[in-house]
């Protein structure tokens, strides 16, 4: 049985992970971590089991095998410090990280296993591969990315949309910093630029579409999530995998065989 500690446990995703753990025969909730000034602090985190929302200082490291972080970027440094202090593997799922925070992930990965996933759905991992392949195969296509999320989302474009842009740039051997056009506004597009359009509305869980267009033809590769269980299950799957790994910085792609599957398919 794997004991899971969840950061951001009171949030939309934290609750989804706790719910997923109630039906998981290999893993259980060991710690539901919130801020000390959280309105959830001290309350029961589960319906039947005696797990309460605690603060990070109250974490009992011997009771936890892996940490899953679905809080916000502001909490990343403290969460990584805890993982380092207690030598615990950590799956980081928060988005909107700046360059310094991404460097901090790499620094933590020198001493503990760290898996960073802007999207824990296997469908998006597959989409990334398909986008890389399509971008390489259509070097002259204009690439644009659309994403839609719920009205409460703070960051934009979404972490997933940026990861898909990076996969497209990689497919063409381009540096992401050179082709990232950000959210589209006025003015004509450059030949290589990859731009985003963003929708925030109601309770949309997460939708992404990558368009590769040449004059007269358009490829659209898309993905929609309608239930946060998809992300929660993906994060737990990643956590189970990570707790058997050596220190290092991993991605969801490392846990899957998609690249080999794609290569085998292409050889046929
Ligand atoms: N990788 C993936 O597949 C997915 C990633 N995400 C990402 O996960 C993150 C959380 O999303 P979501 O659950 O919707 O967000 P919520 O706002 O619902 O939850 C975030 C939780 O973090 C806690 N929090 C807020 N501010 C701080 C802070 N400064 N320090 C520590 N904790 C804080 C809050 O709990 P409290 O105040 O009670 O402490 C809050 O409940 C986002 O970055 C989102 O983009 C979302 C879905 C899927
Ligand atoms: O905030 C969300 O809800 C989501 N965030 C992630 C992102 O920014 O890509 C993943 C998912 O699409 C939901």
From TrEMBL:
All copies of domain Dihydrodipicolinate reductase C-terminal, residue ranges: 123-256
UniProt keyword Isomerase present:
no
Q: Where in the cell is it found?
A: Cytoplasm
Source taxon at top rank: Bacteria
> What is its EC class?
oxidoreductase
SUPFAM superfamilies to which the protein is assigned, alphabetical: Glyceraldehyde-3-phosphate dehydrogenase-like, C-terminal domain (SSF55347), NAD(P)-binding Rossmann-fold domains (SSF51735)
Q: Which GO terms describe its molecular function?
A: 4-hydroxy-tetrahydrodipicolinate reductase; NAD binding; NADP binding; oxidoreductase activity, acting on CH or CH2 groups, NAD or NADP as acceptor
- Annotated residues that bind (S)-2,3,4,5-tetrahydrodipicolinate are located at 150, 159-160
Q: Which GO terms describe its cellular component?
A: cytoplasm
InterPro entries in alphabetical order: DapB_C, DapB_N, DapB_N_CS, DHDPR_bac, NAD(P)-bd_dom_sf
Q: What is its EC number?
A: 1.17.1.8
Q: Does the keyword Glycoprotein apply?
A: no
Which Pfam family is one of this chain's hits? DapB_C
Instruction: Name the protein family.
Output: Belongs to the DapB family.
Tell me the protein's name. 4-hydroxy-tetrahydrodipicolinate reductase
Gene source species:
Idiomarina ramblicola
Q: What is the lineage of its organism?
A: Bacteria, Pseudomonadati, Pseudomonadota, Gammaproteobacteria, Alteromonadales
